[in-house]
Amino acid sequence: MRRLIQVVSFLSLVVCVIWAVMKPGYDSFAATVAAVVVLLSSFLLSKKSNDAAQSQKVEAGGVGIQAGGDVKMNKTRIK
Asked: Is the pLDDT of residue 78 over 70?
């Protein structure tokens, strides 16, 4: 996905530069600057994964509830 973003942003930069050369104006230069920013930021994206890591410590006699969304506390049973 990262490589796709880099390729598409590079192609858009090429198109914007051609547009700025063929028809100079505020809009073509602004689009060229935006394409440069997108291309540079695509190289600065972090490579970390989106895996959610959760951890918790529960003391003796306590109940630990770990969830990725909403939790209803009234349904908790202690065994």
From this structure: no
User: In this structure, are residues 35 and 13 in contact, taking their beta carbons and an 8 Å threshold?
Assistant: yes
Backbone dihedral angles phi then psi of residue 51, each to the nearest 5 degrees: -65, 125
Is the whole model's pTM more than 0.70, yes or no? no
Q: Other C-beta atoms within 10 Å of 35: how many?
A: 21
Map tokens 């989106």 to a residue: 50
Contact in structure between 32 and 23 (CB atoms under 8 Å)? no
**Distance set, CA 13 to CA 40, 47, 60 (Å):** 11, 23, 60
**CA atoms within a 13 Å half-sphere pointing along the CA-CB vector of 19:** 16
Rounded-to-integer distance, Cα 77 and Cα 57, Å: 18
pLDDT tens track for 30-57: 999 999 999 999 888 766 665 566 677 7
